[in-house]
């Protein structure tokens, strides 16, 4: 297994094959807090499948228990301190057409920065992720791996593009490395004290509004936006939205200046893992041909979560419980919702306010609501399979994976028309029978309620149309196969820019 780590990869037959290092603060199956981890774990598989040499770099958090090998180590100067970086290697195993394949993963390890509980929210996060950025660049010659592209994701790897240009370009090894920054969520930008410049080794003159300064702080994401060769977000609609003050989170001006290099690519999902035909976590497998089996999943789910087993529409919600997800709209209409003939199952962790809100809802309506404040992958699969509808009334949504997953299980999304939700959901038209979900425009509780009522009406009064809706939802293909090609195009664009 180790030969992956210390050579330049196998000799690539196809001249157009690319070497890519994808850097992410979270990667499934090692560490996850949100959708970023799913993307970082699954996109490389699709790219490797297409013949490219793609590897991942991520921090080695204390919670990561998988076996790994020592690869290399080196000292890194962090302002006045010297820290040792240990690089360890492991891999993500996957199967493609019956063939076993692997994504090599490099873990950036440091006793000082990462050997402690929890991924984020430490007082020195700026330093911890500055360390990740520097270590990623520093390790490459040691591995004898010179990627064509470093694919950075979100703020934690934002500064890599600048460091590469500012501190490494004079070394021929780094001369042609291109960078792509993917913005998964602009709300999280990583702004920290000015002193962050020192640990990154960046000259103080860069602390100005045209560069990395942002309201008196150093902004990781801004540095990535300014210096990456190409930038993309995780849907086309979000790529447009972030150019406006409403969605730009204060960086709309900076993004407008880079609009020519800004793209949108809707995420894919792992279509083997999230497939009701093969999913071992659900009660009983089903597909379009035996759609009636979905009902058995519903009954088993009702039983498991302690709700009355009966034929009512069951709504599911699986999210980080944060305001982005439009939970305040649900709060506003909870009484009216509970007046309808339905059941509601919630799974997630997050803001204590919303955790309490859903716990209280269950306490008040024990026959209608089941709330699980936890991270529970098997239960998530059962909810995707067993529910009839899936709620996603987000205030903004860069892509959203929940709606894609629920579609593949024939669970109909009810969403607000924003970002990736707008790109992937077509509002159901009872006349033409076209569409794959229910969508509302205005971020208003009443609009959400109307969408829910529309869905309930089709469910109750037009069972044939409902079955058709479920089938067209399941037919949609949101696998990585096509989307990975779009990433390849961006990689090539980035490479061309460095030549
Ligand atoms: C973030 C976004 C979500 C997106 C995911 C993966 O979690 O909030 O919309 O699907 O990243 O790109």
Structure characterization notes:
- With 499 residues, the protein is an alpha/beta fold.
- The chain has two domains: 3-268 and 481-497, Glycogen Phosphorylase B (Rossmann fold); 288-476, 3-Layer(aba) Sandwich (Rossmann fold).
- It is built from 19 helices and 18 strands.
- Strand 6, helix 5 and strand 7 (178-183) form a beta-alpha-beta unit.
- The longest helix is centred in the N-terminal third of the chain and has 19 residues, at 125-143.
- The radius of gyration is 23 Å and the shape is globular.
- Bound molecules: alpha-D-glucopyranose.
Task: Show the helix and strand layout.
Elements: H1 3-6, E1 19-23, H2 35-49, E2 53-59, E3 69-78, E4 81-96, E5 99-109, H3 111-114, H4 125-143, E6 149-153, H5 160-168, E7 178-183, E8 191-192, H6 196-200, E9 213-214, E10 217-219, H7 220-227, E11 230-233, H8 236-241, H9 252-257, E12 262-264, H10 293-305, E13 314-318, H11 327-332, H12 334-339, E14 343-347, H13 352-364, E15 369-372, H14 377-386, E16 389-392, H15 402-408, E17 412-416, H16 419-424, E18 438-440, H17 445-461, H18 463-475, H19 480-498
Parallel strand pairs: 1-2, 1-6, 2-5, 6-7, 7-11, 11-12, 13-14, 13-16, 14-15, 16-17, 17-18
Antiparallel strand pairs: 3-4, 4-5, 8-10, 9-10
Bound molecules: alpha-D-glucopyranose (GLC).
Alpha-D-glucopyranose binds next to helix 2.
Highlighted features:
2 domains; binds alpha-D-glucopyranose; Rossmann fold; alpha/beta; single chain; globular; nine-stranded mixed sheet; 499 residues; disordered N terminus
